[in-house]
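Problem 12. The chain below contains 92 residues. Write out its predicted structure in token notation.
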Amino acid sequence: MHAQLGDRLVIESPVTGVTRRDGEIVGLHHDDGTPPYDVRWSDTGETTLVFPGPDAHVHPADHDHGREPLPGVPTAPDPASAPAAGAGPGAG
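Solution.
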């Protein structure tokens, strides 16, 4: 699990009747974006130190495209650099 500041941490409970929890990641303790995280919870506004378990996942925020990616974290390819559909051999 890797995160950047501003991402959302979502905790889904497998237990019926237990509400899902989410919050904004406001603090990182490792340069590579691995846990633990300081999370400000949306339901209480409280900030706590969180060691996410298997029921948690990170929902990325819409980060600036000019921001440097975290080391060792794969990034999505830039759609602007992809070849146009229908271009290439046999097109036309």
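Discussion. The radius of gyration is 18 Å. Students who got a different answer should revisit the alignment rule from Section 12.3.
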